Amino acid sequence: METTKKDIRALTKEQLREFFVAQGDQEFRGNQVYEWLWSKGAHKFEDMTNISKDTRQMLQDHFVINHIEVDQMQRSNDGTVKNAVRLHDGLIVESVLIPTSKRTTACVSSQVGCSLDCKFCATSRLKRMRNLNPDEIFDQVVAIDKESKLYFNRPLSNIVFMGMGEPLMNYNNVLKAIEKITSPEGLGMSPKRIIVSTSGVPKMIKKMADDEVKFGLAVSLHSAIDEVRTSIMPFNATFPLADLREALEYWYAKTKNTITYEYVVWEGINDSKKDVEALIQFCKFAPSKVNLIEYNPIDDGQFQQASNAAIEMYISMLEASNITVTVRRSRGKDIDAACGQLANKS
Ligand code: SAH
Which CATH number among 1.10.150.530, 3.30.565.10, 3.40.50.300, 1.10.1040.10 corresponds to the domain 6-64? Predict the structure, then answer.
């Protein structure tokens, strides 16, 4: 659907207020409309019942309200829900609701496709089409919050930016979305319940530190040896571990926030003692913990989850060095909703 009208949700509250003044109306009308758009999630001007009919028509003449639609929803037998989300231009991204006994976590996408080329990740096979706008990220969270209330009788409690795309390559929009998610006019969630996961863009990690962001940082490390990391995450050739390390030291110095390293152990790739020793060294640069993620196969047989013995070696060596390590079981594998499986297959 081609339109030249502007998306009203691209306007800040201040710009909306100014728009109404320019139309000969009052500033507070901007606040009312803003509330409809962001707190009440209105998708149509006609739903804005405390705004006069003429004003609604005037808005209709100037603007559109772009919004996402949950195109298809799949439920896993472990309770995980995957949404295929249709954007206003017809492109699709996926987001996932992950329930545990105490929490409901939303895993959201930040880009359509991904420009990185991590060899083990299904999303890397989709070309990066475009960045998501702040409202498209926000809407994924709202959709999952609604599903959480519907299926689990509780609101969403946590958000991880671990869906499709590299959040730090769409930093401004991710930040704006998080502002909306955390502001009382949006969802009022605590930033402490939000984690941004990155494959490690040093310059942007420093920028996050300078911006004094309040949410958590996770880095998809997978190897602390340059050669190995570059072979599975070719992007590491441009941003080698020494640069990543320097950025993470800067992050910790500024924010005092512990870093989580996400790490999959693969057979024959990073399952030797030497690999664990390198990881332990890397963990010493800034306070951190390690999250061992189960590998979710992406159908090419190139990567195999390492043996239990290798995982046990990681756990015991990390613990012996006083590094906190957790093992994260996969969720939603049966519906291709687990880490690295998001590829618009359904
Ligand atoms: N681009 C960001 C966020 C998306 S990926 C990042 O790289 O962090 C979210 C997490 O899933 C990352 O830690 C990623 O390395 C991991 N992942 C990707 N493919 C996977 C797979 N097939 N199995 C398990 N984890 C995978």
Answer: 1.10.150.530
CB atoms closer than 10 angstroms to residue 14 = 11
- Provide the β-strand partners of residue 84: 72, 94
Tell me if 6-64 shares its fold with 69-335. no
**Helix (H) or strand (E) segment spanning residue 293:** strand 288-293
Q: Which pTM value belongs to this model?
A: 0.92
Residue 145, phi then psi, degrees to nearest 5: -60, -45
Stretch 183-208: mean pLDDT: 95
Query: Alpha-carbon distance 134 to 217, whole Å?
Result: 19
The three-class DSSP label of residue 332 is coil
- Name the residue of 98, 162, 208, 259 whose CB sits within 8 Å of the most ligand 1 atoms, as the mutation to test its pocket: 162
Amino acid at 247: A
Cα→Cα distances 56→6, 27, 71, 177, Å: 15, 16, 28, 26
Domain boundaries, the chain: 6-64, 69-335
How far lies 159's CA from each of 66, 196, 287, in Å? 23, 8, 22
- Give per-residue pLDDT as tens, 112-153: 999 999 999 989 888 888 999 999 999 999 999 999 999 999
Q: Are 290 and 323 in contact (CB under 8 A)?
A: yes
Q: How far is the CA of 275 from the centre of ligand 1 (A)?
A: 19
**Cα 343 to Cα 121: distance, rounded to the nearest angstrom:** 9
Domain 69-335: assigned CATH number? 3.20.20.70
Of 94, 140, 197, 299, best ligand 1 pocket probe by most atoms within 8 Å of the beta carbon:
197
114 annotated binding-site participant: yes
Q: Which two tokens stand for residue 259?
A: 């870093």
